[in-house]
Amino acid sequence: MQEEAPMTRVARTGGRTLRATLLAGLLGVCVGLAPAAISAATSATPAAVDQALRDAIAGPQRSSDHKKRDDERHPRQTLEFFGIRPDMRVEEFLPEGGWYTEILAPFLHDHGKLVEAAFPTTSSNSFLRGMARRYRHKLAADSSVYGRVSIRPISPPDYMPLGPPASQDMILTFRNLHDLVYANAHHEAWGGGLRRFFRSAYRALVPGGVVGVVAHRANPGANVGKSAVKGRLPQAYVVAQARHAGFRLAASSDINANPRDDRTKPVWYFTPSLKAPKDQRAKYRAMGAADNMTLRFVKPADSADAAG
């Protein structure tokens, strides 16, 4: 499939605070620089990047329900851990309702590029088809924020092209890798879809490019199949699949960890789903979000465009 054209509709006001912040941060170091030096200057101003993220997270384009989850999902700390900059080409894998899209789109609007690898509106699955249509409607409703976002239709776990070789600086995935494993449970070995994702990401990234992963965590040594049906994966298993595709684990973080989660129950027992038995919901509400691993993988600088 070809990448769809960016969403375009009549623009309306919005996102000005973020653009002003980025401009101020860039002007402080870019005055007198040639255009080719601007990208390097952007990466050299972490204070400006941090403020731009804060502005995007606080912006009016975000839904109130999404903002309520910031204390559990830690978007600023997570994205800074991955090393995101506003001049990057970034692809988000399976955005679902667009929780992170609301942050990434304005952050990358002026200097970078955002591609969303999402289910197609023509999916044979009615649930996925409905989710895809709602997501596109969300983007089309505010071109001042989402007008430069492109959508790449994919159909996991079988069809997951993430772009031409060396076309992306960063690929991000949030709390959905278990779906690639669970989806393969009945027709191939566990992990076929997960390995395919990492191979596709490896091919699409520039040498030195980053895959940022947030994923629900199972206990060390847990059975992969039994964990996946609860929405979880062992961290060592995810790392092994990425390494098999050619990536190097650059760093891990406990930004999204929850030590109160014993990692044995389905993740939808926790917030925001709270589908635990009724007599246990108060306990899970108090525990917050399920435990998550946060991993930064890097394609080695001397790598070829595709893994073997």
Question: TL;DR of this structure?
Answer:
39% of the residues lie in helices and 17% in strands. By secondary structure, it is an alpha/beta fold. Residues 1-44 have low confidence and may be disordered.
Question: How would you describe this structure to a colleague?
Answer:
The protein is α/β, with parallel strands linked by helices. Helices cover 39% and strands 17% of the residues. It has 14 helices and eight strands. The protein has helices at 16-30, 38-43, 46-58, 64-67, 70-73, 75-82, 101-108, 126-140, 143-146, 177-182, 192-204, 224-228, 235-245, 281-287, and strands at residues 89-93, 113-118, 150-153, 168-174, 205-218, 233-234, 248-253, 292-298. The longest helix is centred in the first third of the chain and has 15 residues, at 16-30. The two termini are 23 Å apart.
Helix-strand blueprint:
Elements: H1 16-30, H2 38-43, H3 46-58, H4 64-67, H5 70-73, H6 75-82, E1 89-93, H7 101-108, E2 113-118, H8 126-140, H9 143-146, E3 150-153, E4 168-174, H10 177-182, H11 192-204, E5 205-218, H12 224-228, E6 233-234, H13 235-245, E7 248-253, H14 281-287, E8 292-298
Helix pairs in contact: 1-3, 3-6, 3-7, 11-13
Features of this protein?
308 residues; alpha/beta; Rossmann fold; 14 helices; 39% helix; 17% strand
By CATH's scheme, which homologous superfamily applies?
Vaccinia Virus protein VP39
Q: Return the CATH architecture.
A: 3-Layer(aba) Sandwich
Multimer state? single chain
Share in β-strands: 15-25%
Gyration radius, to the nearest Å? 19 Å
Order of helices and strands: HHHHHHEHEHHEEHHEHEHEHE
What class do helices, strands and sheet pairing give? Answer: alpha/beta
Can you tell me the overall shape?
globular
Strand tally is: 8
Kindly give the count of domains: 1
Helix content: 25-40%
